[in-house]
Specification:
The complex is a heterodimer of chains A (162) and B (85). Chain A has 162 residues and is mostly beta strands. Helices cover 6% and strands 39% of the residues of chain A. In chain A, the strands form 3 sheets. Chain A has an 8-stranded antiparallel β-sheet, with no helix packed on it. Chain A has a 3-stranded antiparallel β-sheet with strand order 1-14-12, with no helix packed on it. The two termini of chain A are 26 Å apart. Chain B has a single domain, classed as HPr-like (Histidine-containing Protein, Chain: A), CATH 3.30.1340.10. With 85 residues, chain B is α+β, with helices and mostly antiparallel strands. Chain B is built from 3 helices and 4 strands; from the N terminus they run βαββαβα. A 4-stranded antiparallel β-sheet of chain B has the order 1-4-2-3. The model of chain B has no long low-confidence stretch (mean pLDDT 94). In chain B, a hairpin with a 4-residue loop joins β2 and β3. Helix content of chain B is 38%, strand content 25%. The chains are: A mainly beta (162), B alpha+beta (85). Chains A and B meet through β6 and β7 of A and α1 and α2 of B.
């Protein structure tokens, strides 16, 4: 009879890390576009490998021509942006190789793009890779759930449905 | 309903950061703001939709504004484009 006092647990969606590295809060990103969550809440990964994998099942919304970022909508409707490095749009694709195209269906763990991390660093850019939920406002909460060393595929973002 | 056209001058087009800034600006207004580059259309308050248009330098975009504050919205968005894109 006390069950009516129990708070109903809202359903959660988990987003995985797209890359092996160190997960840190977006507040650690040296770019206000991300640190002020202008593009949404999420997490940032300091990559240890230049291989970026799909963090969930879904459809590629846009593989940027410059290959430095990719957006996708997961099968649950989460709109994700994976942005490899800061200001790397200026590299115009140099050091990046795309493995999927806009509109492609992907499974969690599919290789999306590869990046020559050393080349990006040598060109003077940071390689920290924000992963943000562009439709953060559609959810009750979007939280970085695992700020530690991560492998690609490990949970890094927990989303609570409204 | 009001509208204007603008030719994108920023050589990088509407990539992640300007898309975020544009959406932030669009959300200041009640009016529905639509961007159209002749290939795709997007609601300017929807980040993923704006970003996925992949608007490039040299493209002409038509911005349409409809709603109670359309005068203010038109001016706000037009100066955003002129100052940032």
């Amino acid at each position: 009879m006390f069950q009516i006092f129990k708070k109903k647990e809202n359903a959660k969606i988990v987003i995985a890390s797209p890359v092996k590295g160190t997960a840190v809060g977006l507040d650690k990103v040296n770019d206000p576009t991300f640190s002020e969550c202008m593009l949404g809440k999420g997490v940032a990964i300091i990559p240890k490998e230049g291989k970026i994998y799909a963090p969930a099942d879904g459809e590629i919304g846009l593989m940027f021509d410059t290959l430095h970022a990719v957006s996708m909508t997961t099968k649950e409707g989460v709109e994700l942006l994976i942005h490899v490095g800061l200001d790397t749009v200026k590299l115009k694709g140099e050091g990046f190789t795309g493995h999927v195209a806009t509109g492609d269906e992907v499974k969690k763990g599919d290789l999306l793009l590869t990046v020559d991390l050393e080349a990006v660093k040598a060109a003077g850019y940071e390689t920290i890779t924000p992963v943000v939920v562009c439709n953060t406002d559609d959810y009750e909460a979007v939280e970085a759930s695992n700020l530690s060393e991560v492998e690609q595929g490990d949970e890094v973002i927990s989303i609570t449905i409204k | 309903m009001k509208s204007f056209t603008y030719v994108i001058k920023d050589e990088l087009g509407i990539h992640a950061r300007p898309a975020g800034m544009l959406v932030k600006e669009a959300k200041n207004f009640q009016s529905t703001i639509t961007i159209d580059n002749g290939l795709k259309k997007a609601d300017a308050s929807k980040l993923m939709a704006v970003m996925s248009m992949g608007v490039k330098c040299g493209q002409t975009v038509t911005v349409t504004v409809e709603g109670e504050d359309e005068e203010a919205a038109l001016n706000g968005i037009q100066s955003f484009f002129e100052n940032n894109l």
